[in-house]
Structures are given as structure tokens and as C-alpha cells.
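Support reply, case 0932

Customer input (verbatim):
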Amino acid sequence: MKRKKLTRRNAYLKDLNEWNEHKYSPGHWTGGNIPPHVKYGGKPMGIVMFVIGLVNIIAVIAALFFSSRFDYSMILVVGLSFIMLIGGARKIKRR
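Our regenerated output:
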């Protein structure tokens, strides 16, 4: 059990070092590489994503009720917020 945890930590540090060396190279992060804090984020990152998505949805729904004007950008925000909710729930659920 300890060996598996140590291997994951080494992989994280290796990815973090690689990300720091190439973070200003557009070819690195547009080629499918993601930051290690997102890749290895786990439950804390999932909780943050879930809470931000929930707050965004509540804010947009409140804006719709208290505003007499409808804006199509609100639909985009709600859609992206649902994506954050689903992504956060998946990160929380995953081990």
C-alpha cells in the first residue's frame, strides 16, 4: 500500500517539474498535457469544482428571477456550471 502511494507522489512530482519547465510553451499545454494539480487533484479539487458550479447555478437562477431582461449568455453559464458540477462529482467519487 505504501509503495503505491509513494509511486503516485513521484509521478506527481515528475509531472509538476515537467509542467514548470514547459508551462509557457503553447505546444505543451495545447497538445493535451494538463497541469498536475488538475490531473492529480482528487477530492479537494472536486469539492471546489462542485461548489463553484453550484454557486454559479444559484446566481444565474436568482438573476433570472430578479431581472426582467433575458440574456442568452445565462444559458451558457448554466451549461458550463453543470459541467463543473458533473466534473466535481466525478472527482469526488473517484478514488
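We compared this against your earlier run and they match. Two observations from our side: Residues 14 and 36 are 9 Å apart (CA to CA). The first helix runs from residue 2 to 22. Please reopen the case if you see a mismatch on your end.
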